[in-house]
Amino acid sequence: MGTTKTFRFRNYDIHPDPAGETTYAAECVSGDEADCGAQSGDEDEPTKVDTWIAKHVRDTGHQRFRRTVADYATAEPGAWQ
Ligand SMILES: [Zn+2]
Question: CA-CA distance, 65 to 56, in Å (whole number)?
């Protein structure tokens, strides 16, 4: 005997939240056996992350990075589907 579950989904209006600050970051993923793991930390400008990368390349010779951008969004409940 199986059970039946019914899920109802609602529409949401999702928008960028201007009150939330967008942040940029990079992590060094260079390395043979394990990633270097050095992190830029969150920056408010992508150019600051570029500068951190340039310095890290200069200091270590590492040349591969994982970059992330994070922002905020709001979701307003809308109609039920
Ligand atoms: Zn590194």
Answer: 10
The pLDDT, as a whole number, for residue 1 is 58
- Token match 């600051």: residue? 48
Identify the pLDDT of residue 25.
Answer: 98
**Left if phi > 0, otherwise alpha if psi is -120 to 50, otherwise beta: which for 51?**
alpha
Tell me the CA–centroid distance for residue 35 and ligand 1, in Å. Answer: 7
Q: How far is ligand 1, taken at its centre, from the CA of residue 70, in Å?
A: 22
With beta carbons less than 8 A apart as the criterion, state whether 63 and 57 touch. yes
For ligand 1, the distance from its centroid to the CA atom of residue 27, given in whole angstroms, is: 8
Residue 36's closest CA among 69, 62, 57? 62
Q: How far is the CA of 55 from the centre of ligand 1 (A)?
A: 10
Regions in the chain scoring below 70 on pLDDT: 1, 7, 80-81
